[in-house]
Amino acid sequence: LKEMAYHTSYSHRGKYYTLSEIARFDELGLWSFNTAWFSKYGTLIKTVEVLVETSDRGYYASELECILQDSVKDALRKLYEQEILSREKINNRYLYLSADPYHRVDEPLEIWVEVITREKYDDADFELEMEVTGPDDQHAVPVVMIRDGNTFRGVYEEADRTGAYKLNWILMLDGSELIGDSAVITVRGFLL
User: Fold this and answer.
1) Measured between alpha carbons, how far is residue 143 from residues 10, 92, 132 in Å?
2) Among 60, 121, 140, 185, which residue's beta carbon has the most beta carbons within 10 A?
3) Spatial separation of the C-alpha atoms in residues 18 and 41, rounded to whole Å
4) How far is residue 13's CA from residue 112's CA, in Å, rounded to a whole number?
5) Residues 183, 187, 190, CA angle at the centre, nearest 5°?
6) Over the stretch 164-181, which tens digit does the pLDDT of each residue have?
7) How many CB atoms lie within 10 A of CB 23?
């Protein structure tokens, strides 16, 4: 085996081997034969690290276990303790994320707002004014929102990193402010 290119399974404690020419890895870098699972990244811990680091939204342990068909709790604990991954508690479960808060975001943040109105307002002249303030930014940037029925859609071109983005919006009816509010959304990881 030393002279041949091969992979060791990350499942079954590395008990199984396959020749590199046999393995057909999927888009996540995984391949299985019967119950043996292999990763182009090698070990289970490295595979968990890569999957979480390249995710645009992070993973719960149960999601990773479903994908990897193996227990990931020890790998996640080690990666968290080594500060390779971070985690956020949501509804009594941990969401695992990249520890790097400034992953580069390669695509603009697309904002969709759906306005649900009573029947009598269906043909009303609604407009939506939106502005977004990015992480660490001092000034809000206006976003052009285009209406299509009861949906407004706009693209915020300034999203260049992960973090919290504050959205302020005002719904206008016939030129007068009807209602306004704000929200904060968090962009995590890469957008692939």
Assistant:
1) 47, 35, 7
2) 60
3) 14
4) 46
5) 165
6) 778 888 888 888 888 888
7) 17
